[in-house]
Amino acid sequence: MLRGKTIAGLSGLIFASAFMLGGAIRPAVAEVSEVKIAMQYGLGHLPVMVMRDKKLVEKHLKEEGLTSTTKYFQLAGSAAMNDALLSGSVDFTSGGLTGIATLWGASKGRVKALSAVNAFPMYLNTINPKIKSLKDFTPADKIALPAVRVSPQAIVLGMAAQKELGDASKLDPLTVTMNHPDAMAALLSKSGAVNSHLGFSPYQEAELKHPGVHRVFSSYDIMGGPATIVVIGTRQDFYDQNPKTVKAVLAALNDALAFINNDKEGAAKFYVENSGDKSSTYDEVLGLLKNPEIIFSNVPSGTMKFVSFMYDRGIVKQKPTSWKDLYFPTAYNIKGAN
Q1: CB-based contacts of 33: which residues, under 8 Å, 6+ apart?
Q2: Is residue 221 within 8 Å of 11, Cβ to Cβ?
Q3: What is the mean pLDDT of the chain?
Q4: Which residues contact 67 (CB under 8 A, 6 or more apart)?
Q5: How far apart are CA 185 and CA 165, in angstroms?
Q6: Is the pLDDT assigned to residue 3 strictly greater than 70?
Q7: 116 vs 158, 223, 227, 309, 328, CA distance in Å?
Q8: What are the backbone dihedrals phi and psi of residue 141, each rounded to the nearest 5 degrees, phi first?
């Protein structure tokens, strides 16, 4: 069963099992017969939903002369995605750049991103009327986010705390791991489990429609503009041993991105019909897809802002020299990447 773990809880044995079977010591074999892809919840993972339901990976596998099948998993949070990728339970993850960066550092570069997927703003919403800034949080407050310490939301919260409170870890004790649908439900129920949520579209926008919910900050305030949040990641050994499969997955992703960017009405309809998200209407999703702050693109952006901060905090164990350290060569020649 796939389940989340923090990086700190992963033993050296797990890393050995995941990486010592790399291409350098494993004999050449045929490409995988089943391609396993993990995704998370929310509008940011729409490209993988499109890949899944339109069978785009299968289409490109066939073009590469492969008869592989595909299997998709829906997981919650960077920790669960990392665990699945390390263990070999999945071959590709559609997850946070920060989760891939953590594995890149811990594995000495044996896990990297193939491609960017999107740049989205992330909102810190709260139902506590006393909270106007980070200075107003107390030990009684709880902040839901998809994975403590390693998710993009957790990193942005640390950046904001460093900037406003002078201590990047100041709010860490208030954070709670919770997937976005559950976090929104807990926030709006006022059950006391959490009273704040550092979220993702469309859940963060749905929360703000409810009386008593207000926004404390947007990640774009902290990052100084858009930065890649979701990437497609894989392991070096898989990348080396399955070049046709990698090519097919990237081609499928680019097809999905083109569909979303060229047919926003069709993409909004697709999301409402296929995501399982019952809180967002067609008009609301279409409005988000037309929002210039929401960017679906394979162009990496803002990589070093995230990773340099993570290295300074000790979350990433290896110091990157440039954004290219975090990506396979598949992303190197993309114009504007950074």
Answers
A1: 67, 68, 69
A2: no
A3: 90
A4: 33, 61
A5: 29
A6: no
A7: 22, 17, 10, 19, 11
A8: -90, 150
pLDDT tens, position by position, 247-277: 999 999 999 999 999 999 999 999 999 998 8
Q: Does residue 194 contact residue 176 with C-beta atoms inside 8 Å?
A: yes
Question: Would you give the end-to-end CA distance of the chain in angstroms?
Answer: 36
CA pseudo-torsion sign 195, 201, 203, 204:
positive
Cα 219 to chain centroid, rounded: 14
Could you count the other beta carbons within 10 Å of the beta carbon of residue 26? 12
Rounded distance between C-alpha atoms, residue 238 and residue 328, angstroms: 12
Q: How far apart are CA 334 and CA 209, in angstroms?
A: 38
Beta carbons within 10 angstroms of residue 37's beta carbon: 21
Class of residue 14 by CB neighbours under 10 A (exposed 0-12, middle 13-18, buried 19+): middle
Domains of the chain, earliest start first? 7-119+227-331 (3.40.190.10), 123-223 (3.40.190.10)
* Type and span of the H or E element at 259: helix 243-262
